Amino acid sequence: MEATAKLRNCPMSPRKMRLVVDLIRGKKVNTALGILKFTKKEASKWLEKLLLSAINNYEQKHGEGAADSAQLYVKTAFVDGGTVIKRFQPAPHGRAHRIRKRRNHVTLVVADQAVVKSNSTN
């Protein structure tokens, strides 16, 4: 069984977020939380909250304390581009330079590793 958490319109470029998401994809939940806690990027703070939300969603689905007994891991994690806010900054000689403030959407899926192994043996 699995649970999903989504972060929409995070005010950070998708490229910067993907650097941190690649660190936790496929890892066990406890390992991923440790990695995010000691990573010095701003994206790690957003992803730590999102991972805790995914764990909580798993507990809501399967009963209180289910995440403690389960062997949860980050099954899927991906980052998509969100809306782009466009601004202009004055430049020399009466010109203007475009500034694009990018946003992203993050989707995180956690699943129980024991369930995956038992389904693959059947």
Structure description:
There is one protein chain. The protein has 122 residues and is an alpha+beta fold. The chain has a single domain (2-121), classed as Ribosomal protein L22/L17 (Ribosomal Protein L22, Chain A, Alpha-Beta Complex), CATH 3.90.470.10. The protein has helices at residues 14-24, 29-37, 42-62, 66-69, 113-121; strands at residues 2-10, 72-90, 96-112. It has a 3-stranded antiparallel sheet with strand order 1-3-2. Helix 2 packs antiparallel against helix 3 (42-62). The longest helix is centred in the middle third of the chain and has 21 residues, at 42-62. The model has no long low-confidence stretch (mean pLDDT 92).
Strand order of the largest sheet: 1-3-2
What is the CATH third-level topology name? Ribosomal Protein L22, Chain A
The total beta strand count reads 3
Largest sheet: 3 strands, antiparallel
**CATH architecture descriptor text:** Alpha-Beta Complex
Number of domains: 1
Order of helices and strands: EHHHHEEH
Which class of secondary structure composition applies to the elements? alpha+beta
* Separate helix tally: 5
Query: How big is the Rg?
Result: 18 Å
Q: How far apart lie the N and C ends?
A: 16 Å
CATH superfamily: Ribosomal protein L22/L17
- Overall mean pLDDT stands at 92
Unreliable runs:
none
